[in-house]
Specification:
Two copies of one chain form a homodimer. Chain A is mostly helical. Chain A has 23 helices and six strands. In chain A, the strands form two sheets. Chain A has a three-stranded mixed sheet. In chain A, strands 4-5-6 form a three-stranded mixed sheet. The relative contact order of chain A is 0.06. Chains A and B meet through helix 12, helix 13, helix 15, helix 16 and helix 17 of A and helix 12, helix 13, helix 16, helix 17 and helix 18 of B. Chains A, B: It is found in: Cell membrane; Membrane. Chains A, B: Acts as a magnesium transporter. Chains A, B: Its main location: membrane.
């Protein structure tokens, strides 16, 4: 069962691979799951990885390749000819995975590989799947499924299923179609276990099923699978014909990727990067937001310099700029995170005005709480005058309310315009809060202190 | 198939429910999936919700209750007696869901409900499951599974499976055990479709399977299911006996919750809240971090006031504090987000020193890029002296490197100590960067400008 992968095991294995000791390496990898072998690849050079892939059976190699990071996979496949990719890799994969791999190849190699696929049925299916947008149901689905005709008896269905099952790794659902291939429903395996052989499929299938259309966006597919607790969902085309099936494991990736993307955007990272990516790629993903933040900082400086003469008298005000800004920044991030998340999991309902009203109240409540503490600390610890303390506190309440409303409004506004609301979070909201916050602060100071 | 739920439909339905028109409401809800009915509940009062739950068949009602938010479910169940909960709700559920519901009840009601469960076998299983920690495999698993003895023939296995399948909603895997109930492997449904009736189970089952232990943490379970692309994973106890099974839909919730929690923590929200939660609950989740941020702002003010006499000469330095701080804050969030995410999805490997070295380089690169732009802008636009511009730029590079290293080190350090690294992100890292950043800035100013 589960093989214990110790540090020692990895060390010995790496040694043997470097020695290109085919026999021992093969033996050592014998009992391992492809996903575990893929993990070991992190410790190996591309050359050694290619050696292992070459060494193992095609089916295992294909599974390993699927588990690797895209960059690593590309490097290995680069060492393979189109014919090898077609016969040793693509041939062993489900169509949806095969399409993902082919999509990663250069345009020229793509054509070559497809031309080399021996199973003409599979080639046809792959060409069909390549037509669909990666981010839709068509791009996620595989062609591997079991379907039976509604007019068959259960015993005929079983025979056909056995035939169809040969190409499949695992069987979860049996789809029922009519003569035109139109999806009617499913025959659960349970029904199949408990029904007598002569019953007609028509009489026992379940017609209340969930499906998605070929052009449904991948996030919608994920929502359907999550909402109805499905293991797989059938995909139909414009004529309601059954054209493929999407399994929950494909959707797991979609869910995790979306959550990671939102998180990264909120943290000011513009491309999907990994901690193991190169310094140049990481810089490219991080520098743009830092530049925007920098412009925000310079913008704040420019606002302050506009009040220069007044500030000579009230230098103390400048010391509380960080307080104003960090508070505004934190409130903005909190508000936007809650909204972005609510939009992502579909829990945001009701009018925008009601929501903004609520954020106003929330900001007022939080603002008053913080302002009270700040009032006491500035006056008694920093020894600021009553007017200066009041300026700081009123400004705090104002910027908190402002940040809460901006943080709520922008994501909802963008979402309504069809823009991913996640792009608005993080540095973007923080930066605009920085500038507006400083401006509000000094305007209030001007009003109270009269400079 | 999919019923179109229009705004009009919802309005008419709400009307009929308010009129307590049982017959029409029942008809209208007939073709709907419980998950869809649960969504409609957002528009109804608790009284109306209870009316619908009462009206529908127990099985549908139980499914609806499972789909509701915890708060709504509690309110409805509050209107039910222990006997009703046991017979009309718990009785219809899989054991894992039943346990989740029972865990939400008050201690007194918990005991009453369990006493009322008529199916003594189910009651026994629920009591067993209640013993396990909610965040472990034991807390996630259900007892519903199909198991066959290795010594049976396939035909005997089929007969037994049919019997066991009656209690199950759906069949995905058939588990093979020995006389002591020790898990040996699985019999795939495909094998079962393609093997002759007299073959012994022992000869055809697959022994290379993944499993988890009863005390495996839920996040680990999710990782196993994701890594090996499983639909369900069996759970074994200390004696390696098969005690339950965890399905992928339970794990979907764990994955989404973890991603949301990390995101919320990074955004400075300390409790799992929803945009629809009350103002008090939202304040409780948001105020603590704002207070920490406030202390950071006051801390920065206190550091600056330590340089007061020097600042009278160089007031201009204060104007660039927001620039220093927001840059440091953004870098810190970026670095920590990448590390936290890498720790969550298991892609962080290799020594900490190497990683810190990389962040140092990355910080240096980003820092020099930004400093160059700032040098030009401050000198030519703001007209600062050469020395002041140099001060700002050198401080920028220093705080960026510092923020990158802190942002990387703290999550890895916490993770090594068994603390969830996500708590360190967001306001926490921002706040410490705020204070340290200002300190570095003024120390560099002191060295260069010599005040």
């Amino acid at each position: 069962m589960n093989v214990e992968i110790t540090k020692e095991f990895i060390e010995i294995l790496s040694e043997r691979i470097k020695e290109q000791n085919a026999k021992v390496v093969k033996e050592m990898l014998e009992g391992l799951h492809p996903a575990d072998i893929a993990e070991l690849f992190d410790e190996l050079s591309t050359k050694d990885q290619a050696f292992v892939i070459d060494l193992l059976e095609n089916e295992t190699s294909a599974d390993i390749l699927l588990e690797l990071e895209e960059d690593d996979r590309k490097k290995i496949l680069h060492t393979f000819s189109a014919k090898e990719i077609a016969n040793e890799v693509i041939n062993e994969m489900d169509t949806d995975d095969a399409v993902d791999i082919i999509n990663e190849l250069s345009d020229r190699k793509k054509v070559e590989v497809i031309a080399q696929i021996e199973d003409k049925e599979q080639a046809k299916e792959i060409v069909e799947l390549l037509r669909y947008d990666e981010d839709t149901a068509g791009g996620l689905m595989g062609k591997e499924l079991i379907k039976v005709n509604k007019d068959w008896s259960v015993i005929t269905a079983v025979k056909q299923m056995r035939k169809q099952a040969e190409d499949l790794e695992e069987v979860f659902s049996i789809y029922v179609v009519d003569d035109d291939d139109i999806l009617l429903g499913t025959l659960s395996l349970k029904k199949f276990l408990t029904t007598s052989a002569n019953t007609k499929v028509e009489d026992v299938y379940n017609s209340k099923i969930q499906y998605v259309n070929i052009d449904t966006p991948d996030m919608e597919v994920a929502k359907v699978i999550e909402k109805y607790d499905l293991y797989e969902v059938p995909v139909i085309d414009e004529l309601k014909r059954l054209v493929g099936v999407i399994t929950v494991d494909d959707v797991l990736d979609v869910i995790r990727e979306e959550a990671e993307e939102n998180y990264q955007l909120a943290a000011g990272i513009t491309q999907n990067v990994d901690s193991d990516d190169g310094i140049l790629k990481l810089t490219k993903a991080r520098l743009p937001w830092l530049m925007i933040g920098m412009l925000g900082g310079l913008g704040a400086a420019s606002i302050m310099s506009g009040f220069e003469s007044a500030l000579e008298k009230y230098t103390i005000l400048l010391m509380f700029v960080p307080l104003i800004q960090s508070t505004a920044g934190n409130v903005g991030i909190q508000s936007s995170a809650i909204v972005v998340q609510g939009l992502a999991n579909g829990s945001i309902k009701g009018g925008i005005l009601k929501r903004l009203g609520k954020e106003f109240l929330l900001g007022l409540l939080n603002g008053l709480g913080i302002a009270l503490v700040v009032l006491l600390i500035t006056h008694f610890v920093f020894g600021t005058t009553y007017y200066v303390s009041m300026t700081i506190c009123i400004a705090l309440v104002a910027v908190i309310i402002n940040a809460a409303i901006i943080g709520t409004f922008i994501p909802i506004f963008l979402n309504g315009r069809g823009v991913d609301p996640a792009v608005s979070t993080g540095p973007f909201i923080t930066t605009s809060n920085d500038i507006i916050g400083v401006f509000i602060y000094f305007m209030i100071a001007k009003a109270i202190l009269g400079f």
